[in-house]
């Protein structure tokens, strides 16, 4: 559904992310905020890609919202006695928001004597929206089969309006649950920070090493003297207290985001949006908390 172009801003963001990581290794290698700074650098690197996905999703939403208006006006023009192709040209001067440039281009193609079904196919391909493509495919089949296009367009309009109403109802009904899920996630992060920064160190001091896994309570630092030392210290860090709590938080944020997106929007792309938000917040918050432990 999404066809994002790799442009100059993406190259700049990646280069800036690489520079930030290099600066982190050079200036903050032995500092407590070394790992949090990596999270910031990675976020800077992929931020334009993420914003591009969100912008494309917003564009697609705008197309879906205005497409029923276009179909409704087209139906009215055909009912007045105009051919389908001439009806498109007649209603192309109307403002359809994000859909306007595509309709104007469709009308221009028809005026340039491009066959109606081919122009409609180009229109659906350029919008790159599955709902619009399915609706236009139905129109083309009805035209080629000699069916009543007015009835087909009326049915399509009713279906599109019903789909829009269902999405709005689901979005409004799940909005409160989305906010609750974000609050619950932040409470979860707070509990994780209290456990790793206060509870486990207190229990370790109170009871010595008895009953406490020393692999978890031991503070492990990542070394960069050699590749072997780096991987060895990294895997040791993964099974330490800091590594385990960080991975738990990021995994929780990822799957919580997927569930939120599926419930609120009904597709995994929205879930990925929430996953990126929660996962990034979890990584930054937990690593910063570990820096001051």
- Helix and strand pattern: HHHHHHHHHHH
Report the span from N to C terminus: 44 Å
Number of helices, counting only DSSP H or I runs of 4 residues or more: 11
What is the number of domains?
2
**In total, how many beta strands?**
0
Q: Summarize the biggest pleated sheet.
A: none
Overall mean pLDDT stands at 79
Structural class: mainly alpha
The general outline is: elongated
Please estimate the helix content.
Answer: over 70%
Explain how this protein is built:
Helix content is 81%, strand content 0%. With 293 residues, it is mainly α. The chain folds into two domains: 1-147, no CATH class; 170-293, no CATH class. Helix 7 (149-207) packs antiparallel against helix 10 and helix 10 (241-264) packs antiparallel against helix 11 (268-291). The longest helix has 59 residues, at 149-207. It starts with 7 loop residues before the first helix and ends with a helix. The model has no long low-confidence stretch (mean pLDDT 79).
Describe the secondary-structure layout.
Layout: H1 8-27, H2 34-79, H3 84-91, H4 100-111, H5 116-127, H6 130-144, H7 149-207, H8 214-217, H9 227-238, H10 241-264, H11 268-291
Keywords:
single chain; 293 residues; mainly alpha; 2 domains; 11 helices; 0% strand
Summarize this structure briefly:
This protein is an all-alpha fold and 293 residues long. The chain has helices at 8-27, 34-79, 84-91, 100-111, 116-127, 130-144, 149-207, 214-217, 227-238, 241-264, 268-291.
């Amino acid at each position: 559904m999404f066809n994002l172009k790799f442009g100059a801003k993406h190259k700049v963001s990646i280069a800036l992310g690489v520079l930030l990581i290099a600066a982190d290794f050079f200036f903050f290698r032995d500092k407590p905020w070394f790992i949090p700074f990596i999270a910031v650098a990675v976020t800077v690197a992929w931020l334009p890609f993420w914003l591009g996905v969100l912008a494309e999703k917003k564009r697609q939403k705008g197309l879906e919202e205005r497409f029923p208006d276009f179909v409704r006006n087209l139906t009215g023009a055909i009912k007045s006695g105009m051919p389908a192709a001439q009806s498109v040209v007649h209603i192309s001067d109307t403002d359809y928001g994000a859909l306007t440039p595509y309709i104007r281009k469709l009308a221009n193609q028809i005026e340039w004597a491009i066959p109606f079904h081919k122009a409609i196919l180009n229109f659906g391909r350029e919008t790159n929206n599955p709902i619009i493509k399915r609706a236009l495919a139905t129109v083309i089949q009805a035209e080629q089969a000699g069916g009543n296009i007015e009835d087909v367009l009326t049915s399509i309009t009713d279906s599109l309006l019903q789909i829009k109403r269902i999405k709005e109802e689901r979005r409004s009904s799940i909005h409160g649950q989305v906010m609750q899920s974000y609050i619950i996630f932040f409470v979860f992060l707070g509990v994780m920070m209290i456990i790793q920064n206060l509870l486990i160190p207190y229990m370790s001091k109170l009871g010595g090493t008895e009953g406490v896994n020393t692999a978890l309570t031991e503070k492990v630092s990542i070394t960069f003297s050699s590749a072997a030392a780096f991987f060895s210290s990294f895997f040791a860090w993964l099974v330490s207290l800091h590594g385990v709590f960080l991975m738990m938080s990021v995994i929780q944020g990822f799957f919580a985001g997927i569930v939120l997106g599926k419930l609120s929007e009904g597709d995994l792309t929205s879930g990925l949006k929430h996953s990126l938000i929660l996962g990034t917040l979890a990584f930054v918050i937990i690593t910063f908390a570990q820096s001051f432990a």
